[in-house]
Amino acid sequence: NGEKDKVLYVSIDMYETYRDVIRLCLPCACICVDSFHVIKQLNFCFQKIRIRIMKRYEKFKHQRSNFYWLLNKVSFS
Predict the structure, then answer these.
(1) pTM of the complete model beyond 0.70
(2) Residue of 27, 25, 22 lying closest to 12 (CA atoms)
(3) Contact present, 14 and 37 (Cβ < 8 Å)
């Protein structure tokens, strides 16, 4: 039990089951999400917003609008 109390930090992805297990087995540890998965989640959210906005302005698609073209070509990944 003493060794488990010495663990101060644990880096994981955002899988909820990992958090539950760490809280149970390593109650003194601070849980941190690794940067790869934080950035991946941010990119996913930006992509959803971009697509939602793009669909709202779909009428500009046929007008050869630079605005619509930019929304269509921008990628956050």
Answers:
(1) no
(2) 22
(3) yes
